[in-house]
Design goal:
The chain is built from three helices and no strands. By secondary structure, it is mainly alpha-helical.
């Protein structure tokens, strides 16, 4: 005759967990938040460079950008000054001059 008792005589607690549940539990245990890793933080911070050649190259680059920006703005600035002179100063002085002549 066959008995319905479990064949395992050990006192261990048997859990009914599927393979998928085991994998999910392992994934949860091994999960690491990537934003807190030191490698992620180091990637976002630039290291200082005290070499004089690096400083000189940076200074040349900044000077080049400054000169280019000045040339770009000065071309527009000249047009703005001409517009202001023609439309504002000429009209103001003409109005004042006309008022002075009428007196």
């Amino acid at each position: 005759t066959t008995s319905l008792e479990p064949q395992c005589q050990c006192t261990c607690v048997e859990q009914n967990i599927t393979l998928e549940e085991k994998l999910n539990n392992i994934k949860k245990e091994l999960f690491v938040n990537k934003s807190t890793l030191s490698s992620r933080r180091r990637k976002l911070i630039s290291a200082g460079d005290k070499r004089t050649s690096a400083k000189q190259i940076g200074l040349i680059g900044a000077t080049f950008l400054g000169v280019f920006l000045f040339m770009f703005i000065s071309g527009d600035l000249l047009n703005v000054l001409i517009f202001v002179y023609k439309n504002v100063f000429v009209k103001i002085f003409r109005i004042k001059y006309d008022k002075m002549e009428s007196k």
